[in-house]
Design brief:
39% of the residues lie in helices and 14% in strands. By secondary structure, the protein is an alpha+beta fold. The strands form three sheets. It has a four-stranded mixed β-sheet with strand order 4-8-7-6.
């Protein structure tokens, strides 16, 4: 794990590898995910919920009932299993998806959003989704080639009418990155991505251990968290902008006015 000693070193690490010589532009091939503690894993919320239960049965039950009751809410364009999966993830339903972002600053927000976690190191996971595409099954590679894209949309997966059809694409595990539909401004402001694997019980961090060249982990040291948090607030990266509405505003104000105390400072 890379460990910066200053804000400037942290930024250098986060933006490393962004230069694209083919385009002659800074276009990072990385997706970012910030976690408040280095002890947290890259496991999806469905796996955390399942425990000893059959995760495949649980997944289908959750999606079936979510789509049944969510029809009471306006959900234009929700037609396929992929729409329901994305909509459920966005609204807190336990799914096999994991949230990511194109923005290293948004990832830093999630690594520093909880003052009660300021006594421990956070982490930003950086996964090279462009290189991860080289490990995809042939059909998925062909879809990306047809669309001239490096990430999927839910419409690009529409030929797979069920999760079972998607899961049967290959024997070896793989990961795809999906840009969710613009369900609301929260999706847009967070510059959001989802990762998806063909097995709801799969752990992405375990898969990445077998492909270390695809991943970098950058520590957000406890002793830097207050500085990082204050500078993100000054840069307008906070709950108020990432979660538009009164709930996000209230969360931002509560954290913004949290007093710095010995309990949140590592000795």
């Amino acid at each position: 794990m890379e460990r910066p000693n200053s804000w400037s070193e942290l930024l250098e690490m986060l933006f490393a590898g962004s230069w694209n010589p083919e385009l002659q532009r800074f276009r990072s091939p990385y997706a970012f995910r910030g976690l408040a503690s280095t002890e947290h894993h890259l496991s999806n919320s469905l796996l955390r919920l399942a425990g000893q239960a059959s995760i495949n049965t649980l997944e289908l039950s959750l999606l079936r009932n979510f789509s049944k009751y969510a029809h009471m809410q306006p959900a234009p364009g929700v037609e396929s299993i992929w729409h329901w999966l994305a909509l459920g993830q966005h609204h807190g339903l336990p799914t096999r998806l994991i949230d990511w972002t194109y923005s290293p600053f948004v990832a830093l927000h999630f690594a520093t959003e909880l003052p009660e976690e300021y006594d421990r190191d956070g982490v930003v996971w950086c996964v090279n989704f462009v290189e991860a595409n080289t490990l995809l099954p042939k059909r998925l590679k062909a879809i990306l080639q047809e669309e001239q894209s490096q990430t999927f949309t839910i419409d690009m997966l529409s030929e797979f009418r069920s999760l079972k059809a998607f899961d049967s694409l290959a024997h070896d595990p793989f990961v795809v990155f999906i840009e969710p539909p613009s369900l609301d401004t929260r999706i847009l402001n967070q510059f959001a991505l989802f990762s998806l694997m063909p097995d709801p019980s799969a752990r992405l961090d375990t898969w990445l251990e077998s492909h270390p060249d695809l991943c970098r982990r950058i520590a957000v040291p406890a002793e830097l968290k207050w500085e990082v948090r204050d500078k993100l607030d000054q840069a307008n990266i906070n709950e108020r902008t990432l979660f538009p509405g009164l709930d996000g505003l209230s969360r931002w104000l509560e954290r913004y006015y949290t007093q710095k105390s010995p309990k949140t400072i590592r000795d």
